Each structure stands twice: as C-alpha cells, then as structure tokens.
C-alpha cells in the first residue's frame, strides 16, 4: 500500500486524549467564570467580594437589590429542582428499558453462531480467523451501555449548567446586554465542550479496552463499537421525545390560558404553568438536544470506523489512519476553543444589534478554521493513497480526496445553518411576511407558516445531495461517514450557540417573575430572539448530519448484511420503501397528539387554579406551581413510551420477519421522508415563534403597525406560535433521531438478520 503516515501511532495515542482533556479543562474554566456571578446575599454583599463591584447601569426603581437577587435565586432553585426530578424520573424508566434492550442485543447477536465460543473465519476475509460472535455480542452490549450512559451524562450535565446559569444571566442583564450575553454564551460553551470531549474520550477509551481482548482482530473491535452509537441515540430518543412533550405541554398550556384567555404577559408569576414552562426549556431543549447531538457524533464516528476496519487501514493495521475520524474530532475541539474566545474575549458585544452577528460569526469562524484543521489532519494522518471498502470491492482513494469529503460536509452544515437562519430569523422577509399575514387572523398565519416551512426544505436538501454525491464519488460510504463527521466536527461551537437559546429564554422568564424593570426584560428578550434563531440553526445541523449519518450507517449495514445491491424494482424492497416513508408521519402523529393531550390536561389545571384560588389574578395569592410540574412530568413519561417503542421495534420486526432486503427499503424510505418533515417542521415552528416576537418587539414601523401585545394580529401570532411549538420542539427534532436510530440499530443487529431474518419469506 501507500507510504506510512507522517503522524506516528504513538502521536495519535497521545493527541486524542490530550485534546479531549483540554476540552474538559476549558469547559471547567468557563464554568468557574460563570460561577463568579453570585446568587447569595451573604454578609459580604455590601463589600466588594460579592461580584457586584461594577456599578449597575441603573438602579432598580424602588426594589432593593437584595430582594431581587433573593427572588431570582428562589426561582432558579425551583426550576433546577423541577428539571432534576423530571430527569431522574425519566432515567428510571429508561434505565429499565436499557437493561432489557442490552439483554436483547446479547441474546440476538450471541445466537448468530449458536453461542459458540470458538474462533470463526472473518466475515470479509475467510482466510483469517476472528473472534466468535459471542464476543461481539458481549462487547456490543457493553458499548451500548457505555453509549447510553455517556448520553445521559451529557444531557444531565447540560441541564445542570443551564439551570445554574439562567438566573445569573438575568442578574448580569442589569449591567447591560453585553455582560448578560457573555454569561449565557459561556455556559452554553461549558455544555458544548463537555459533551464533545466526553464523547471523544469515552469512545477512545472503549476502543483501547476492546483492543485488549480482540488484539489484531480490528474488524471485530469496530463491529462491537457500533453499540456505542446505538446506546447514545436510543437515550437521545427518549430524552428528546420525553423532554419535548414536557416542555410543550407546559408552554402551550401557559400560553393558551395566560396570554389568550387572561391577557397576562408571558412568564407572569401569576400563571401556574410558568415554572413548568421554564423547566421544560431545560429538559427539552438542553438535555434532549445534548443527547441528540452526542448520538449523531457517536454514530458518525462508528459508521466511519466500521467501514475503515474492512478497508486498507484495518487490513494493514494502520492505527493513525484508522482513527482519522477521532483525530478530526480532536482538532475540532481545539478549533472550537479558539472560536469561543472570539465571542467572549477578543470582541465584546456592546449593543442588542451585535448579538445575532456575534453568534453567526461563531459559525463562520469555526468553519473556516476547521477547514485548515481538516487539511492538516488529512495530511499528517493519512497515507497518500489507500483503499476503501465499497460494496465488496476495494476502491483506491487519495488523501486529498478524503479531505474534500470532510470539508464538503463541514460547509454543507454551514449552508444549512444559514438557510435555516434566513427562514426563521425576524430580520429577513420570510418571517416578516408571516407576521404581516397575521393582520387577517390566525388562519392566514398558519397557511403562510406552513408554506415557509415547505419552501425552506429546498436548499438544505440540495446541500445534502451535493455533499452525498461528492463524498460518495471520492470515497464511497466512508466518504459519507466522514462528511457527517465534518458537519459535526464543530459540535462544541454548535452546541454552545444552541444551548445559549434556552438559557436566555429562562433568563427572560426569571426577570419577569422576579418583577424586574421593563428595560431588563427588553434586554433578555433581545437575547432570547437571537436564541430562537440559533436553536433553529442547531436543529438544522442536527437534521443535516442525521441524514448523512444514517446514509453512512445504511451503507455499513448493507455491507455487513452482505447485500450487494438494493433493487427498488423488487417488490420486497419497494414495500419496505413505502412503509419506511410512512414511519415519520406515524411518529409525528404520536408525538403531536401526546403534546396535545398533555397540553389539554395542563390547560384544565391552569383554568381550575385561576377559577378556584381567590386573589390569584390580583397577585395576592400564590399559584400551585408544583401541581403543573407534576402534570407535565407524568404526561411526558407516559407518552414517550409508544413513539420510542415504534422506532426501536420497527427494525427488529422487519428484520426478523421480512429480512434484510425489506429492511434496507424501510431505512431508505424513512431517511428520504424523515429529513423533509424534520426540516419543514422545525423551520415552520421557528418562524411562527419569531413572527410573534417580531410583533411584540415593535422594532420597526411595520411591526408597530401590527399592534402592541394583545392586538388582534398579536393574538393570531400567538396561535401560530402555539401550533408551531410541538412542530419545532417535539416532532421535528425527534425525527432526526428516528432516522439515525433505525439505521444504527439495523447495523448492530445485521449479523442476526442476515443469518436468521426473513422468516415469512422462508416459510412461503
């Protein structure tokens, strides 16, 4: 084969863990900086040590500092407790499922060779002996549990950091918008870096531990590692669906009764659902999002490693080239670290207008720097020519071609991000048109919003199509896997700007509940509107990468299940395509109906409290927040099971009864239809939300003409926003997990389906 790599194996073994540790250290430093903002009123609050040495821009009118700070601290601890108790309840249920599924993996994969412990000829090279299927079963189960655990920890830590930072952002907003922005952004970065570094480190350690047993059988190691991606994504599914149902039940319930019926502002402390709504932002948008992107990251790494292990890297045992996907991620952490400093240290945000540009610059800077990073990694860690396994044949590839594969994924991600921003930010005409249509009521608003969502699919799909074509032409399925990794290589920055959204949303809620002055609420609203857009960009990234990841996993599955071609004209495959394309609709129906029924319970409870608690509207009595939190928790735990079961069981049922050909059809169908629905749902919801914010902010003559809060147009906008909530926060983002999860699950169970699958066709 080609010459040796410039980076020696020892260098790789040092570089990957060092980058991961740097990422974790950087996250801790950012966390300490956020923690400098004090939430307590100790004896020293008069002195300089409390962190209030800087003069506040304006003193609160008639409210002493202490009571505001104390109130913020109280609200923050209520939100934090609610989120923690929900996640613990959720993890108890999911934990039972995890153990059951782990047993299933072990039994199914172990039964491939009837639980024999003898070495077997390798799948792709029958002249060599490989470890038995039983070993693969045991190690797949182990990596599944590792992935699940890492995914849970990622989500949980993110939630902890977000609930730690929300009140601190509110307090900093008294000193000006720039200070508040930095606190929110830093805490987002804590989550981004912890997640990227943890994902990388655990995966690297797992590979090294598996090596102790497998030795030179690399094909076996990386086949067992696929369980890591499956664990990560199956946790993410429940986190996303459960969290999404929770947050939207509370949000819809709070909006419908509070804003539309009672005419009280958003996040008014008189509204009983207000704490549940703020808890929801943390469990859905932060914990769910964290697990989701961790899942994508784990799977794209796994897909690339599986294909590489049966290519020349794996055959010649070239460790550095083999771990190329991990090296790309390692450099990604360093690049994101530099990029983050641009927002927090090199340039300061001084005015409201600079918030969105600052967040957009993050994306551009990280993408440009990462392009150079990938070039360097490809140059030092790949031989000049090598071969990649391509459906049974080895295809020769040069190292610059692989660089282009990663780069095309990276830039496609940027394009998807910007298109999403164009369609969901109220600075551009699409959202302003939607806002304008509110003049004639909610119906036209809904029509315009749906049209916007469908239209916003065009460019992202073309970007994904181009990157698939380019990367497949250069390096077959491996190219697609590394393109997905390229899109996710700047995951730390992507997550930072994404987690920033819910944190600033919570900060606004706390400002309103603590009774802070109007000017502070305006600042937090400005932070929040930018956060809505960045959340939409984050979802765009998640969906785009999910499409590439699942295609790569699909390729790995087809290789593993020994199918040479997937022929659409055979009835077996075609019925699979049809059924697969239907699944995202079924799934969306389940999740939206769950949100609807949970919101119904919430609305009834909120109405009951307004009607039965005397003095609630006047503000003399306190509402029963805990009851609303309980309703959301119970509803989401109960409702997340059916959609989760649909996704987890479909590949098993199809594979066992109809075989691998039909399953390949189902995967392709789900991929094709799921991506479209996911993008359109996320963007429709985001656009409706920002159209409402556009009218509320009244920043332009056009917006002021549509009326203040409470006008007819504003009420129409609120209805649109409420309809869009389950679309953008429950159905849309969960769909990308559906696509990935079915593909990775099929890959893990491929050996079993190939030997024992297709029962129905065997009988007839």
From TrEMBL:
GO terms for molecular function: diphosphate hydrolysis-driven proton transmembrane transporter activity; inorganic diphosphate phosphatase activity. Its EC number is 7.1.3.1. It is found in: Endomembrane system. It is an enzyme of class 7 (translocase). One of its GO terms (cellular component) is endomembrane system. It is a multi-pass membrane protein. InterPro entries: PPase-energised_H-pump (IPR004131). Pfam families: H_PPase. Keywords: Ion transport, Magnesium, Membrane, Translocase, Transmembrane, Transmembrane helix, Transport. Its main location: membrane. The keyword Nuclease does not apply. It comes from the Eukaryota. The chain crosses the membrane at residues 14-34, 93-112, 132-159, 180-207, 323-343, 363-382, 402-423, 457-485, 541-561, 573-592. HAMAP family: PPase_energized_pump. This is H(+)-exporting diphosphatase. It comes from Sesamum latifolium.
